[in-house]
Specification:
Layout (H helix, E strand, L loop, with lengths): L20 E5 L15 E4 L2 E10 L2 E10 L2 E2 L3 E2 L7 E8 L5 E9 L2 E9 L8 E2 L7 E8 L5 E7 L6 E8 L2 E2 L3 E4 L4 E9 L5 E8 L23 E7 L4 E4 L3 H4 L8 E8 L5 E9 L15 E10 L2 E2 L3 E2 L12 E4 L5 E7 L13 E7 L11 E3 L14 H10 L1 E4 L2 E12 L13 H11 L4 E4 L11 H13 L10 E5 L8 E5 L11 H4 L6 H10 L1 E5 L20 E6 L32 H6 L5 E5 L9 E6 L4 H9 L3 E4 L4 E8 L2 E4 L3 E4 L4 E7 L4 E8 L2 E9 L2 E6 L7 E11 L4 E4 L2 E5 L1
């Protein structure tokens, strides 16, 4: 739980006097409560109020309770919309009204809403934001003149911008852009100082955040956690101004580079404090054998004195994940209290150990207050470039495409079944869990996602981490718009291979890797039995790498798909294929070169594997799993994956591939017997003109068309096919190099 306001973590000269108490332990999942990422509390007229988000009947809504004497009131429901209401925040205005703001999904998009309580009744909910895109993580503060400020960040301009809106005199003013360049500007914090000036702090990163990044790209966007800085602005009642000292330039060298989630708070002496989470990858000046990609994020604090920021001070016992938030509040006597979580990771392994919650009364800075020096705000012009000029049209086209076959209607759902965050032991540069969902919902506009964290070394083998991942799936499940999956990555090195595990239902346990499996003394039989019991599936990834397999095991019932292409690495189709590795060129094989694992080899063994594309670490926006399903639900899409109704693509390409014989029609991934002629039908709608389309039978290229328009329909009859089982699949290459691979159709010719 976080309290509604933020404040100084302690003296800039006496942090060592901070006293901490372990308030609660959350190392076990325990009771499956339904708390959203923020659950603020506040006191009104001496009575503590708590507002929380709870999932009841499959939907997240806000509820409020008040402590009256020795007992809590019954829960009062504050929202009733059929989609999630989460990320709430509280404040009290100068007239004693309680304000709650939150992020609520309506018709598939998130907006910012507000309600206020006057001591007798709640006002009706009002929509504060105006963008048709997703608006995120609101904050609220109040001045001494009856004004209330609500801030948030919005994807309305096709990148994240920071906005603020003021309520006064019973009405809302216009939205004020605080930061609205082409950069990533998000995670806003607000505070009001003793002169009723509004302070704002937020995170920044590069242009085209989350757009095309990956292996061997000529022009990249900004990776999800490529870099992070902070910015601060002050509204003096007329305009936004800047502190005379730039916070990023003021930081010592050891604290520059990765600073997240700035939080502002005024202390009793009138100072504004800035707190932030800094990433530490190793203890300074001490050798460490831990991989560089493991990290601890810790809280540091500073305040501005005149024209300089004081040297930041470390808050002890705050090691945790990147996006862990903390709460700060004044006790009315001039003291500030703080509460924060820690997972007790050390400076050796940088891995989750045991989650606790700590609280502390923070010491005051015993020096003279020097008013901050403010200067005219200068916003640098940020050069930007467009990577996908027609992406909105491409998305509308693929979302509107229908496949009518055998009396059923199918649609194409684009997703990613292989994406990591900071929770994975090697996810240091992947960003936080919530930022990953932001990327999926906003930047890539995916229909589904699997945050496939490695199950070991601080991952979902820990019951609490598994619960957290499942809880986040529920928070971001938006009916009709976004349906993430439950699951994880189960990793065993070559020749057994890494697999991503997917479930449609919550609460499935992981299957820890045994020593026998790790030493390649035990195959996948135990995994397949587990998947059948838990009603899940496995998808092999990067099969031709050191994380791949020599295809010693397969069970088509629970392992129906393979990752034929990965954005963080290369194609696994066959050696020398477009975007694939080749012998003698190590640069072409990130992740190692294991040619036994090429997908062609699995098909040659008779394995019935459909295909997907996925991202893994770092890479974004260049690999899509396209699932052809009748229902846009987890159950409906998982059923389609089991039938191999799937293809992989590096862009928003429509690949509609079918087979017709004997008056019936089959989709890609199907298995059939043909006692007569059969005809292959291919419809491709690309995002650029098409360089070539190939039809491959087994390992033979049968048919090739080149220099085509973006929209192509063709049919093919194999006149030379011999009796027996054959597979046929389609590969598409556009003039811009983007590709798509269909799942095969298996035909037994009698």
């Amino acid at each position: 739980m976080t309290v509604t306001r933020s404040g100084p973590p302690g003296s800039a000269t006496a942090t060592t006097r901070t006293r901490c108490w372990r308030a609660a332990s959350t190392g076990r999942a325990g009771e499956r409560s339904s708390a959203s990422p923020k659950s603020p509390a506040i006191t009104i007229s001496g009575r503590p109020w708590v507002v929380y988000s709870a999932q009841k009947g499959g939907n997240w809504d806000l509820y409020a309770r008040v402590l009256d004497g020795d007992s809590w009131s019954a829960a009062e429901r504050l929202t009733e919309a059929p989609q999630p209401d989460v990320f709430h925040n509280l404040a009290t205005d100068s007239e004693g009204n309680l304000w709650v703001v939150w992020q609520g999904f309506r018709d598939g998009a998130a907006d910012i809403f507000a309600r206020r309580y006057d001591g007798k009744r709640w006002s009706e909910a009002e929509q504060v934001s105006s963008s048709s895109a997703n608006d995120w993580e609101p904050v609220v503060v109040a001045d001494s003149k009856g004004g209330v400020y609500v801030g948030w960040d919005s994807y309305g301009a096709g990148n994240y911008d920071v906005l603020v809106r003021r309520w006064a005199g019973g009405e809302w003013g216009e939205e004020m852009p605080v930061a609205s360049t082409a950069k990533y500007e998000a995670h806003l914090s607000l505070a009001v100082d003793g002169q009723d000036r509004v302070w704002a702090a937020w995170n920044e990163s590069g242009v085209n955040w989350g757009k095309d990044t990956g292996w061997v790209l000529n022009r990249e966007g900004t990776r999800l956690y490529e870099w992070r800085t902070m910015n601060v602005a002050v509204h003096d009642g007329w305009e936004w101004r800047s502190p005379a000292a730039d916070i990023n330039e003021a930081l010592p060298e050891e604290l520059q580079g990765y600073n997240d989630f700035p939080a502002l708070f005024p202390d009793a002496d009138g100072r504004i404090w800035l707190h932030f989470r800094h990433r530490t990858t190793r203890q300074a000046d001490i050798l460490s054998e831990s991989p560089a990609h493991r990290a601890a994020w810790e809280i540091w604090s500073t305040t501005i004195q005149g024209d300089r920021w004081l040297r930041p001070q470390h808050v002890p016992m705050t090691r945790f994940r990147q996006d862990a938030r903390w709460g700060l509040a004044s006790d009315g006597n001039g003291d500030v209290w703080a509460a924060w979580p820690t997972d007790n990771r050390d400076y050796d392994g940088f891995l989750f150990e045991h989650a606790d919650v700590y609280a502390a009364k923070l010491p005051r800075l015993m020096t003279k207050v020097v008013p901050p020096k403010l200067v005219a705000r200068v916003v640098d012009e940020v050069p930007a470039y467009v990577i996908h000029e027609n992406e909105a049209e491409d998305l509308a086209r693929i979302r509107g495409y229908e496949i009518e076959s055998e009396g059923k209607t199918y649609r194409i759902y684009r997703g990613d079944t292989h994406r990591h965050t900071e929770i994975s032991m090697d996810g240091n540069n992947d960003g936080s869990l919530i930022q990953t969902y932001r990327y999926a919902m906003d930047v890539a506009s995916l229909d589904y996602l699997l945050a496939s964290e490695h199950n070991f070394l601080g991952g979902p083998d820990i019951e609490y981490i598994n619960w957290l991942l499942h809880q986040t799936v529920d928070v971001f499940s938006v009916s009709g718009r976004f349906q993430p999956f439950y699951g994880y990555e189960r990793s065993i090195s070559f020749p057994d291979g890494h697999r991503n595990i997917l479930f449609a239902e919550r609460g499935k346990p992981t299957l820890p890797v045994t020593d026998a499996e790790r030493n390649h003394e035990e195959g996948a039989a135990r995994l397949y039995e587990y998947l059948k019991e838990q009603e899940g599936i496995a998808i092999s990834h990067t099969s031709a790498s050191s994380m791949g397999t020599d295809w010693r095991d397969n069970d088509p019932e629970v392992e129906p798909l393979v990752e034929i292409y990965q954005g963080d690495r290369v194609s696994n189709e066959y050696e020398g294929a477009p975007r694939a590795a080749r012998t003698g060129n190590l640069r072409s094989a990130p992740g190692g070169f294991r040619p036994e694992g090429y997908v062609w080899n699995a098909w040659a063994k008779g394995y019935k594997l459909g295909v997907q594309a996925a991202s893994d670490h770092l890479s974004t926006h260049i690999s899509y799993a396209a699932t052809i399903a009748e229902e846009f639900t987890r159950e409906g899409m998982l059923d389609a994956m089991k039938k191999r109704h799937s293809y992989g693509a590096t862009d928003n390409i429509i690949l509609d591939y079918r087979l017709r014989t004997g008056g019936r029609e089959y989709l890609q991934g199907d298995i059939l017997t043909a006692d007569g002629d059969f005809r292959l039908s291919v419809r491709v709608i690309g995002t650029t003109p098409i360089r070539q389309i190939d039809i491959i039978r087994n390992q033979t290229f049968l048919y090739n068309r080149q220099n085509l328009e973006a929209d192509v329909s063709l049919e093919f009859v194999d006149a030379d096919v011999e009796p027996g089982e054959h597979l046929y699949y389609v590969r598409v290459i556009q003039v811009d190099g983007n590709m798509a691979w269909s799942s095969p159709i298996w035909v037994t010719v009698e």
